[in-house]
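Exercise 7. Predict the joint structure of the components listed below.
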Amino acid sequence: MLENQDYQFAAAIVLMTAATYFTRAGGLFIISRVTPSPRIRAFLDHMPASILVAIIVPTLTGKGPAELISAGATMLAALYTRSLIIAMLTGIISVSMLRALVFT
Amino acid sequence: MKTKPQLQEKSKVIFSRKGMLDGFLKCIPLGLGVFVYGIVFGMLAVQAGMTPLQAQIMSLTVFAGASQLMALELWAPQLPVLALFLTTLAVNLRHLLMGAAMRDWLVHIPTGRSYFSLYFMTDESWALSVKEMASGKKDAGFLLGSGLCIYAFWNCATFVGSSTSFWMDRYLADPAVLGMDFAFTIVFIALLTFFWRGKAQIPVWMIAALTAWLAFMLFPGKWYIIIGGLAGGMAGALRNA
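Solution:
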């Protein structure tokens, strides 16, 4: 038998799913209905990298030399190899090594 | 309205199983990172009073890491349903921007496929896909494939986390040991590097960084991602148009 709590849970799940899907689908819904001007196009072109910058910045604030050096090493590896896997491994290995051996 | 020259140039976009598979495979390293957080979610969900089944249902339907973890903060015997809805909405508003940024792929494939693919879009699969799109790839199946990869890892991890505390106690008590706490930053830094086209981007990225940092200090939640993304986009639009 369904209890009151089960209805509450169901309502929470339905509303949370609606909220996440609305945000995932809403951007395309809007942008596919307007003809972007050159200015809007430039905005859309610069937004992805800006979002990435925005995601990264707070995760680096207050971090020590091990993290900052690994961040630099990741960028260099990505720039020269163009390979995500090599860049990831460079970053993760360097941060764990630097933490364990140098900046303990 | 629909026959813009810009659109016709880009009408070679396809949606294939090969693209999906490519996206799925390339996303596996990111999936492993998601797996660690999924285990944490599964464990905390049970501690917060959810049954493992409820945690799994949430991961299968809501499928949004940050929102689900924040929901646990609000979880109580009497569920604050409206607060859960509004929090989820606020936490995920950044996906509006991300979905819009996938325009060059998604307006060229059948609408149903676009909106189905978007159901599975996460920060990780989006970042990988937008990099793929920016590098000139034309297979929109990549977005769905990479999203399904994260979906699979997130749900397996929820199951593992909610059904046992064994692994967390033994190996994941301190993710810093493996450098896993920094893994997501590393991934996003690598993906950002692929967007590097030259020094002209420096002011745009600086503005994005500065506003994101200010917003991070001033506002709770994930508003900083939206604010930084909008500020960088606007800075780029002012410079280029």
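Discussion. The first helix of chain A runs from residue 4 to 31.
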